[in-house]
Amino acid sequence: MKTFYVILANSLAASLTNNLVWFAVTFWVYLETKSVVATSIMAGVYTGTIAITGFFLGSLVDRYKKKTAMIVSSVGSLGLYVLSFFIYIATPRQVFTDPSSPILWAFIILSLLGAIAGNIRSIALSTLVTFLIPEDGRDKANGLVGTTNGVSFLVASIFSGLIIGFLGIFWMLVAALGLTLLVLVHLWTVSIPEKGVVHTEDHTKRIDIRGTIQALNAMPGLFALIFFNTFNNFLGGVFMSLMDAYGLSLVSVQTWGVLWGFLSLGFIIGGLVVAKKGLGKRPLRTLFLSNITMWVLCVFFTIHESIVLLTVGLFLYLCLIPVVEAAEQTIMQKLIPPERQGRVFGFAQSIEQAASPLTAFMIGPIAEYIFIPFMTTGAGVDLIGNWFGTGKDRGLALLFTVTGLIGLLVTVIAMKSSAYKTLSRNYQKQTAEELIDQ
C-alpha cells in the first residue's frame, strides 16, 4: 500500500498539471475568440485523440514496465508543452483572437496533446491496482483513484480560472512546464516492485485488437458494458463541449474557475465514499443506478437560469462520476486476466471516448444554428420562453435538458436488457468460484 500511495501522489501531481492545461486553454480560447464552435471543436480534438490513441497506449502499458510507461507519459507531456510555449511567445497576440488561425490551432493541438499524453498514466494506474492490491480491496483502491482525480480537478479548476483571469496564458505554461519536470524527477526516484512484464504470450509486441476482443468475448456482457458507457460519453460530449460557454454566460472566468474548484469536491467526496464503503456486492447495479440519478440531474440543473441550481446539480452529478468509473474498473479487473488488462483498459478508453468527439464536432453547430436561434428568435420563445427563459444561454440550457431525457431513457432500457443480466450473473459466478477456491 505504501508504494501505491506514493504512485498515487505522483499521478495526482501529473493529473493536476494536465487538467490545468486543458481547463486553462479552453477558458483562454473562449475568452479570446468568443466562439462556441471553437470550444466544441477543441473538445472534439481532445476526446478524438484519446479515442484514437487508447489502443496504442494500452498496448504500451502491457509491453513495458508500468514505471517506464509513466516516465514516457511525463516526457511526452513535457516536450509538447515546450513546443506550445515557444509557439505562444513567438506569435503576436492578435493572431490568437481569430478562431480560424492555423497558428492558434497548432498551439491548441500541441497543448491538448501534452495533456492527453497523461492518459498513459491512467491506464497504467488501473493495472497497478490489480498488481499491488488484493482483489477484495480493489473497489476501495479505485475509489482512492477517483478521489485523486477529484483533487486534481478541484485544484486545476481553481487555479486555471485565476491564472487566466489575473496572470494570463504565459504564466500557465510556465507553471505546467515546472510541475511536469518535478513530476518526472520524482517518478524517477520511485521504486515499483516489478520483476518483469506480466504477459504470457508475445502479442504485446503489437496492438493486438483481435486478442483483446477475444478476451472481452470470453466474458459475455463486457462488450455491452463498454458500449453502454460509449453511448453515455456520446451524450456527455454535449456537456464537455458547451458547459464552459454556458457557465461563462452566467459568471466571470475567475468565478467560474473557483466554482469548478468547489464543484470538484464532488469527485473527492464520491471517491472517498467508494474508498470507505466500497461498491457493494453488485457493482454493476450500482453503476446503473448512479447513471439514472446523473441523467435525472441533467434534466433539471439548467431548467431555470440560476447559477445556484447549476452548481447544486453539477455537484451531485460529479459525486457520482467516481462511483461509475470505479464500478467499471472493478468489474474489468475481476473478469479480465492481468496480462490483458492494459490493452482492455486502452481498448475500452478508445471505444468509449470515440463517441465524445462526434458529439463535440456536431454539437457546436447544432447549438449555434438550431437551439440558440430557437430560444432567441424562433418558436421556442413563444412555446416555453415565458417560463424557461429566452436568449443564447437558454438555448444551451434546453440542449442540456433534452440530452438528460435521452440519457435517462437509454439507461433504463439498458438496465432491463439481457446483456445486463448476463454480465451480472457472470460477475456473481466469478465471485462464488473464488470463495470456493479459498
UniProtKB/TrEMBL annotation:
Segments forming a coiled coil: none
Keyword list, A-Z: Cell membrane, Membrane, Transmembrane, Transmembrane helix
GO CC list: plasma membrane
Positions of transmembrane segments: 7-30, 36-57, 69-91, 103-132, 144-163, 169-190, 251-274, 369-389, 395-415
Top-level taxon: Bacteria
Location within or outside the cell: Cell membrane
Keyword Transmembrane helix: yes
GO molecular function terms attached to this record: transmembrane transporter activity
Domain Major facilitator superfamily (MFS) profile: start-end pairs: 1-419
Membrane topology reported for the UniProt record: Multi-pass membrane protein
PANTHER family: INTEGRAL MEMBRANE EFFLUX PROTEIN-RELATED, MAJOR FACILITATOR SUPERFAMILY ASSOCIATED DOMAIN-CONTAINING PROTEIN
Identification of the protein by name: MFS transporter
Organism, as annotated: Spirosoma endbachense
